[in-house]
Amino acid sequence: GKSEPKIDAEHVSVKDWDEDEELKEHFEKSMSVLAKLANTEIAKVPKEYLPLNSVDARSQDSSVAHFLFAELKKALNQNDTDCPTVDAVLISGGNIRGGKDYPEDHDRFSLKDLKDELQEGLEAVIVEMPGDLIIKGVKATHGESNPGYMQFDGGVTLDDDGNVATIAGEPIDEKKTYRIATTLWDIEDGPSEPWTTYFKENPDKIPDNDFSIMSTIFSFFAKHVWKQVFKSLDTNNDGKLSKEELKEIDLDGDGKISKHELAVRMKKLGWQVDENEVGFVDCIFEVAGDKNKDGYLSPDELDLQ
User: Fold this and answer.
1) Rounded-to-integer distance, Cα 132 and Cα 152, Å
2) Are residue 79 and residue 200 in the same domain, yes or no?
3) pTM to 2 decimals?
4) Residue 24 counted as domain residue
5) Same domain for 230 and 201?
6) Whole-angstrom distance, CA of residue 46 vs CA of residue 52
7) Backbone φ, ψ for residue 65 (5° rounding)
8) Dist CA 272 CA 285 (whole Å)
9) N- or C-end of the chain: fewer Cβ atoms within 10 A?
């Protein structure tokens, strides 16, 4: 018969070999991209969401989801005057993908954190639901671990029996109709049978318009930073910038704001910035009014007085 192969094994130290320079260079380039993302702070995390955690978001409440969905709700409601655009955000935990147990003092949310937690293509819709349907629908997903385990914004709480107790910090009214930001999958194909049944029976209540969750949150964070920068420059609090006030940020004296000058100002205000990662700064320039996209905020774009 055939003889059995003889296998020899020994432990060796990889330090005994010279580094592969090409592989090392490739690794360092890859890690530098991640470092830029990690060093780009995009939001401060309120204390009520600390410590952040996104482990097992398919089977338990996630403080990362509560934080991000609270910010998404603020973003959707930021221009409201009378009634809010949405009362709550209810989105399945399978979309919270970081699986991370953050350090207790991790209160600076970075661009890397956002990209780790949310997929860029995730889209949401706004639907109307009666309170009793919200209660039944969320409860139906909170059994065994599943991608449809419903997560929610910080204004939603559950009672001891796992039923939704509050929406926007107020006791839920079973007969009231609420406006909810969720995903089409959650209402059409997810494990919440009360929801999928309701929307099958009421297809006219499914909206045609959806929106990107990632870009909505990202733009909202950018607006928040720009408001801080603007407020720090507007020393007389008249809601406008003067040529004199602009001098505080205009380091080279050319009468306009560059991306580098914005980054320097952000650092002065306590934001962690990696100037080689321009994605967030680009977004700030967009929301601040860089209409011609030339990478500068000109006197006209700033409406200088």
Assistant:
1) 16
2) yes
3) 0.85
4) no
5) no
6) 10
7) -60, -45
8) 17
9) N
Neighbours of 22 (CB within 10 A): 8
Instruction: Tell whether 14 is covered by a domain.
Output: no
What is the CA angle 53-191-128, rounded to 5? Answer: 90
In the chain, beta strands by DSSP E: 41-44, 88-92, 108-110, 123-130, 150-152, 157-158, 164-167, 170-171, 177-182, 211-212, 257-258, 296-297
| SS3 state at 158 | strand
Token pair of 75, please? Answer: 């973003």
Domain membership of residue 56 (yes or no) is: yes
232 and 131 both lie in a single domain: no
Paired with 124 in beta bridges are 211
Return the sign of the alpha-carbon dihedral for residues 97, 103, 104, 106. negative
pLDDT at 27 over 50: no
Distance CA 293, CA 286 (A): 8
Dump pLDDT digits (tens) for 225-280.
999 999 999 999 999 999 999 999 999 999 999 999 999 999 999 999 987 877 89
Q: Which residue has the tokens 């601040």?
A: 288
What's the angle, vertex CA 161, arms to CA 156 and CA 165, rounded to 5? 25
Q: Quick one: tokens of 74?
A: 């603020």
pLDDT per residue as tens digits for the range 123-139 = 999 999 999 999 999 99
Give the structural domain span for 279.
222-302
The number of domains in the chain is: 2
Burial 52-85 (b: 16+ CB within 10 A, else e): bbbeebbeebbbbbbbbbbbbbebbbeeeeeeee
Asked whether residue 9 is domain-assigned, the answer is no
